[in-house]
Design goal:
This protein is of the alpha+beta class and 298 residues long. Helices cover 26% and strands 23% of the residues. It has helices at residues 38-53, 56-64, 106-113, 133-149, 156-164, 172-180, 255-263; strands at residues 17-18, 30-31, 77-81, 86-94, 100-103, 189-192, 198-202, 207-210, 213-224, 230-240, 243-248, 275-280. Bound molecules: zinc ion (ZN).
């Protein structure tokens, strides 16, 4: 077996490669061991994913959306209690009856009990710093892995053969940018398409669920030739906690995608007609960021 990133032998590798890290709540989208070798898996975990997840937006987003760590723990955030001029690490969790509970240290608990403090102040970070090279390489990694994942398991091996073959290594630039940071900076588009905590009703499946992340490939056709050939560009479009991130899989330029959004009044390729907004937890929990949040940009 060979690794799809470095092409080295990966027969003895043990890592399962999660397309989106488990610490962002992904349990379902992964590649079985061997497709990405231990060394590449480790590189992405340390140099890309840990870097990304330690950015203030992601710490804050995981805290307020109660996304558990890989080990199943809540993410802590430092909040400020102005009446007693004290900062403390807090964990937040929603109880079964829909109350939002904050877990604080003993000293603070006593102060709250005694009615000495009633307010807590947390950071307001509505989106990741943009543009951001770590995010760009993370998207390149996800797009490359999703290309294989999207083929369906029964086609993995034939797809891997293609990706490993010199003549058909069509995503070489994307792969080398993700793994080695080679080549020019790969642009991406970032925008909020829905609020955090939106719960949608899927009419086809009669199911209510919250979309933590979703992804797909979106093809934008440029030209159709008389012989039936089509000129097109393929974009990897992913949303995490309501923010859409898009990258082209063959070109570091994103302007054509941005033009397409403009021509389609801000429509997102991730939009699914079967899904309608059922309710939003952002109406209950003021910490969650709304789509048209204007708490700062008034
Ligand atoms: Zn490798």
């Amino acid at each position: 077996m060979q690794c799809i990133f470095c092409h080295n032998d990966s027969s003895t590798s043990k890592s399962i490669e999660h397309i989106i890290p488990e610490s962002l709540g992904n349990k379902d989208h992964y590649l079985h061991k061997g497709y990405v070798c231990d060394e590449c898996n480790h590189y992405f975990a340390i140099k890309i994913e840990n870097e990304l997840l330690s950015q203030p937006y992601f710490v804050s987003m995981r805290f307020r959306n109660e996304i558990l760590t890989k080990k199943g723990r809540f993410v802590k955030e430092k909040l400020f209690f102005p009446e007693v001029k004290k900062s403390s690490e807090v964990v937040m969790c929603t109880t079964e009856d829909g109350c939002i509970e904050a877990v604080v240290d003993e000293e603070l608990y006593d102060l709250i009990e005694a009615g000495k403090t009633k307010t807590m102040i947390g950071p307001y970070i509505p989106e990741p710093e943009y543009p951001n090279v770590i995010m760009s390489r993370f998207l390149a990694k996800c797009a490359y892995e999703y290309f294989l994942y999207n083929m369906g398991e029964e086609k993995y091996d034939s797809c891997v053969q293609e990706l490993l073959c010199k003549g058909s290594d069509i995503l070489k630039s994307l792969r080398e940018y993700a793994r080695y940071g080679k080549g020019e900076y790969w642009q991406y588009n970032q925008r909020r398409i829905y609020s955090e905590g939106d719960v949608v009703l899927n009419q086809n499946e009669a199911l209510n669920y919250e979309i933590l992340h979703e992804m797909k490939f979106f093809t934008r056709e440029h030209k159709r030739f008389p012989n039936g050939y089509v000129e097109a560009e393929v974009y990897f479009v992913m949303a995490i906690a309501g923010i859409e991130y898009s990258i082209c899989i063959s070109d570091p330029n994103i302007s054509e995608y941005q033009k397409w959004i403009e021509e389609h009044n801000g429509f997102s390729p991730l939009n699914d007609d079967a899904e309608t907004l059922s309710f939003s937890l952002s109406n209950i929990n003021p910490m969650l960021i709304k789509k048209d949040d204007d708490r700062i940009h008034r």
